[in-house]
Amino acid sequence: MAGVQMRPAGDFRTGYGRDTTIFDDRASFLTVVILIAIAACAPLLLSGYGLNLMIQIGYLGIAALGLNILVGFTGQISIGHSVFFGFGAFASVFIHQRTGIPVFFCIPLAGCFTAAIGLIFGIPAARIKGLYLAIATLAAQFILQDFFARASWFTGGVAGTLADPVSIFGYQLIADQTYFYLVLAYVVVMYVLAANLMRTRDGRALIAVRDHYLSAEIMGVNLTKYRILSFGISSFYAGIGGALYAHYLGFVSVEAFTILFSIQFLGMIIIGGLGSIMGTLMGTAFMVLLPETMDAIGRALTDTPIDTALSLRSNIAFLQEMAIGLAIVLFLIFEPDGLAHRWRQIKAYWKLYPFSY
Predict the structure, then answer these.
(1) Which 3 state secondary structure label does DSSP give 11?
(2) How far, in Å, CA of 113 to CA of 90, rounded?
(3) Tens of pLDDT along 260-289?
(4) Contacts for 249 with CB less than 8 Å, ≥ 6 apart
(5) Please, what's the largest Cα pairwise distance for the chain?
(6) What letter does residue 200 receive in the DSSP assignment?
(7) For a Cys-Cys bond, which of 5, 81, 124, 284 suits 61, CB 3.0-4.6 Å?
(8) Among the residues of 169-253, which ranges form H helices?
């Protein structure tokens, strides 16, 4: 089950504060600090292409975390996450162009505007759930996609719109090396906020709604409030990720925010682990790097008998989409708790070695 942590015998939590810490022990905290320090060195170690992939993992990971709060922590469902991601992208550009507010401040503002839209589309969650709610979010996908295509004053219509680069004190973050640090800062802040949210009264209420909504209601949890609130929080994260995406690419097009993109967001949190903050980033990295891996395999098999028989190089785009679908199916069958659960098993193995349990 998502969210269950394996602890060795003798690891007793004798206080409430000790049981709700973000990090289990000092070693976990130091590991995260070291990983952030290594990530900060990425511009010095990686090529431009590698840095581009890291930036993609950053802004997609922020948006995917919002979906995991909605699906993994609250037990709701959404198959229209990409349009909230797109709304954040368009909103940040629109605010900057119409008001002149620096792009740096437009990014959180875009998150707030997207959260407001998410609260509106989350209203059906107060009355319906399961498959009916999934269809309602699918409707949101098509409604906002159509809105993007028609609202030229907001999105530039089907032609799209240009996005200015982020500027801080007159210094423009145009190069990947500088933009990476902005994305890294947002990733750290947004992930710490999410981890702290789950320690608060509201965060525990969201989890209670997921675990057993009738018991939660008997305990006094307002189901309507928290179900709609989870859509707002999810959309806020999607808006921040979308705004970072827009100002990185410098151009936003309606065509990017399809239902396939929404399914890819679901794939990120399923593969990473529902109800796992760390797993969200792992799943995002998996989904970003999987097409690159498929492309590398296709290049390696070029002009081989396998390539001749199956035409791998000419069908690499289809193979990449097939690999994403296959990965989701295999994880659902063999590892439903995702990469985060596997990582916890590996840590438990080394902690308990040579004992098997």
Answers:
(1) coil
(2) 11
(3) 899 999 999 999 989 889 899 999 999 999
(4) 163
(5) 65
(6) S
(7) 284
(8) 176-197, 201-211, 213-218, 223-249
